[in-house]
């Protein structure tokens, strides 16, 4: 009796399920997703401060994808995970360096403060109205040593706008003419002031201060009566501390004289 020979069955070919490799793959995938989320958050922070770095991060990501596709056929799951993680770490380091650079940039130096103009640099005729002009003249008198200075201008002042006491004790009577540059003080203004400054106000020194100038007849009348004329140029010098005060332009009580008043015209 012939006994048939049984051939052993061939086992089905196929990849064996590897639990360890699968778990390792998913572990690295989870780590990669966490790192990717952190990088995206950091990249958004960097992009808000420096948009150029956002473009750099995009290039790094594209390069990582291209390299991953080229090596997919010859890289194992573990190798691919390692390369991806390395690329993500490099991108994260670049983003952190950029963020740190934005935080450590020295703040710009503050713009220099422009000092406000002082009384010595203000152009009086350009910024003050008539009342403020009288106050400014009284302030100049006090600044230069007058014991008293009072604004008395107004209705019925009879030509006196400021009355002060000079450092040497003389009584100053000042008339203020806040005029436009092309409107000069005429002889009629000087005559009205000359009729009251000495007799009514008992001035030792009578002064007319203007922001413009004086006509020739007015200057001649002032010279005859002994009235000190302070035009715009002389006022600017007095205000800036470069010229004498009006009471220094006439002889003092002890015969001391100041600069000669030879520029009335």
UniProtKB/TrEMBL annotation:
SUPFAM superfamilies with a match to the protein in the record: Restriction endonuclease-like (SSF52980)
Record bears the keyword rRNA-binding: no
Chain segments annotated as transmembrane: 21-40, 52-68
Domain (Restriction endonuclease type IV Mrr): residue spans on this chain: 128-238
Region called Disordered, residue ranges: 242-265
Keywords carried by this UniProt record: Endonuclease, Hydrolase, Membrane, Nuclease, Transmembrane, Transmembrane helix
Coiled-coil ranges from the UniProt annotation: none
Classification via Gene3D superfamilies: 3.40.1350.10
Single GO MF descriptor: endonuclease activity
PANTHER family, per database record: MRR RESTRICTION SYSTEM PROTEIN (PTHR30015), SLL1429 PROTEIN (PTHR30015:SF6)
UniProt name for this protein: Restriction endonuclease
Species of origin: Streptomyces vinaceusdrappus
Classification lineage: Bacteria, Bacillati, Actinomycetota, Actinomycetes, Kitasatosporales
